[in-house]
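Input (Lipoprotein):
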Amino acid sequence: MALKFGLFSLALGAMLLGSTAQAADLKAEHDASSVAWNSNNGRDSRRAPTPPANQNGRYELREVKKWVEGRYDQVWVAQSCSDQSRRYIKKCEPGHYERRWVPGHYEKVEQWVWVPAPRHGGYRRA
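Output:
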């Protein structure tokens, strides 16, 4: 009887542990997908931000140029072999990493931009 109870407990524990691990995987996948969609302090980045109080205008999603600073990148350079002179000797240089400079540049990104409402009135008839 004790053996049956022990096997039952072991099977139940394995089943619960497996479902807990699966739930943790699903939660991690959900968290990763929410990071991709949310960037405005937890708000959905596809929705317009709240307009400032007492302001006339609206937010529009526009494509703007954003400056990206220059940086060094580490690039893998594959092994290269070359033939040497008349003796058919191959000289091979093993694969290695190289630091390469990527110059600064502009990138087009979508960004919410505040557009003030056009002012009406102010024109006088003569």
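The first strand starts at residue 38 and ends at 40.
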